[in-house]
Specification:
Oligomer: single chain
Shape: elongated
Distance between the termini: 56 Å
Number of helices: 1
Structural class: mainly beta
Largest sheet: 11 strands, parallel
Length: 260
């Protein structure tokens, strides 16, 4: 079974490529290094309805997931304790957490969708990138905290290469020491706030950012010793019909100077 292959301890330096054809309902716990879970049919999916995750990589191991639809209960995919995870051309959906990356792990999401989860992408003390992907129709789109870092950007190898955070209740939430760097990302149509920063967190628009921030109630909401920097960027547009930027109770904004 797939589960047996993934739990076997191995010191083989080669990448283990596991082709998934059709629907797999096993809970997959990756314990060996260098694994690639690859969908090879139009209906390739990992669907787990137990009260747990669908795929987990734990510890200093490398996992690549490509061309798969993944659903769990607690989470679709989890990476913890220094794991290295790359998700390409995949969909993580209909779980309590679409993707949870924690405890010193690194995670890269490329040309994928995280959709229809309670929490789309949760980052706890991990380093992550979302490239040319869509985080849509979740309650909370992206949550970054406990000194985690999220980079939201484009990817040069795709023609439609912007990252989209859209139609969530909260788009990007950064708190408890979290950090986010924004470049070529559209945060639009989120109900409460496009970007919500609080509790000693920081959000930065990169100098060459090209972003649209247009949401239902607030575009930017900053409070509790959180900050935004380089907001005054000619390529960052705000479009909310309500007050675009709310800064209160200790929040701060560093506007930046165009061209510097």
């Amino acid at each position: 079974s797939l589960a047996a292959a993934l739990t076997a301890e191995s010191f083989d330096p080669r990448m283990l490529v596991i082709d998934v054809s059709g629907v797999c309902t096993e809970l997959l716990n990756v314990r060996r290094p260098r694994v690639h879970l690859r969908g090879v049919s139009w209906d390739s999916a990992i669907l787990v309805d137990q009260e747990d995750y669908a795929v987990r990589v734990d510890g200093p191991k490398e996992l690549v997931i490509s061309d798969l639809v993944i659903q769990g209960d607690f989470a679709a995919v989890i990476a913890t304790r220094g794991a290295s995870l790359q998700i390409v051309d995949s969909v993580l959906e209909k779980s309590q957490r679409g993707l949870l990356c924690a405890s010193g792990s690194t995670c890269e999401v490329i040309n994928s969708q995280i959709r229809e989860n309670s929490q789309g992408f949760t980052i706890i003390g991990a380093t992550t990138w979302v490239r040319a992907s869509q985080v849509i129709n979740n309650y909370a789109g992206i949550n970054v905290f406990s000194n985690g870092t999220a980079g939201l950007t484009a990817y040069p190898y795709f023609s439609d290469n912007r990252t989209i955070v859209e139609d969530n209740t909260f788009g990007l939430s950064v708190f408890a020491g979290g950090n986010a760097n924004l470049q070529s990302v559209d945060i639009v149509g989120n109900y409460f706030a496009g970007i919500y920063a609080r509790q000693n967190s920081h959000v930065r628009f990169e100098q060459d950012a090209e972003s649209l921030i247009e949401n239902d109630l607030f575009d930017l909401y900053v409070r509790s010793n959180a900050g935004l920097s380089n907001v005054y960027n000619l390529n960052v547009r705000f479009g909310s019909s309500n007050p675009s930027i709310i800064c209160d109770t200790g929040g701060y904004i560093e506007w930046g100077i165009p061209g510097q």
